[in-house]
Amino acid sequence: MLVSSLAVFAHHRLGLFREFIYLAQMADIINLDIEKPAAVSTAKDFASANKEHFDKTASHHEDKRWLELARRAARAITERYKFDEDSTTVMDFACNTGLLARELAPHTKSIVGVDISQGAVDVFNERVLNQGIPPEEMRAVCIELKGVEGELDGQKFDVITCSVSYHHFEDINSITKMLSFFLKPGGTLFVVDISPSEKEGHNEDSHQHHHHHDHHHDGHSHGSSSDALFPEHVQHVVPHKHGLSREMIQAAFDGAALTSFTFEIISTVMLHGKEGQLFVATGTKSPA
Ligand SMILES: C[S@@+](CC[C@H](N)C(=O)[O-])C[C@H]1O[C@@H](n2cnc3c(N)ncnc32)[C@H](O)[C@@H]1O
């Protein structure tokens, strides 16, 4: 126990996977660089690796450049849905410390953040407490949702949001089905994430997700790591190292029986000199 605590402390001190996002001086491009880790733990499934990673980074996640990204995501979402602060209930999935949730909260009746990182959820709830917001209006829970009756006290939502997290999910098809389970009939799912830029030449690859590969789901598993959008040192927490194409997102939404699919580019991001496109995708659960 002591040994593992020391190991965690040492990793933290060495700045394991601190992520930096900064706004480019010019235009409205977001420049996102991710610091190289001191050590990489391998041999973990993506969910466990993410939990470990985000537990360690929670306390210093709230860089103002991440905040700018959350603001752009929030703007894209609020421009595309008629929120009613007296009635709209929201789940923010993979909420981390609540950057997006805090931007959306003023537009909602209530917002529940969900994340697998206890460290991130603790920071989320501490912020809510400090702002004097009652938990029935805003809170986060640490749970790996399955999409079965009884989870989240049976609550269903008008809107579910998930921002810059889909690239962390190994199986976006099952995550989307699971999220659809938590939508009310007629409810809307918003996914904001990063798509490969056409300039980076991955659009052709992105069609391969329909082919079955043994261990991966995005069709990029045989591609070179070095030409990926996400740098090699974070690829153990990023199964979709080339980002997510429109086709991949649409297939996931279709598979979850979400209709009225839309997909729009809202911003440009730079990751270690590679250009990506920030997109917002929406889909609606059929009315009962
Ligand atoms: C880049 S952060 C999300 C940022 C956040 N949406 C915001 O607005 O600031 C990615 C998050 O995904 C969470 N995550 C990764 N895999 C997950 C899973 N399978 N279920 C729930 N959360 C997950 C991580 O713990 C982390 O907090």
UniProtKB/TrEMBL annotation:
CDD domains attached to this UniProt entry: AdoMet_MTases
One Pfam short name: Methyltransf_23
Comp. bias intervals (Basic and acidic residues): 198-207
Keywords recorded for this protein, A-Z: Transferase
Domain of life: Eukaryota
PANTHER family, per the entry: PUTATIVE (AFU_ORTHOLOGUE AFUA_2G14390)-RELATED, TRANS-ACONITATE 2-METHYLTRANSFERASE-RELATED
Protein name stated in the entry: Uncharacterized protein
Classification lineage: Eukaryota, Fungi, Dikarya, Basidiomycota, Agaricomycotina
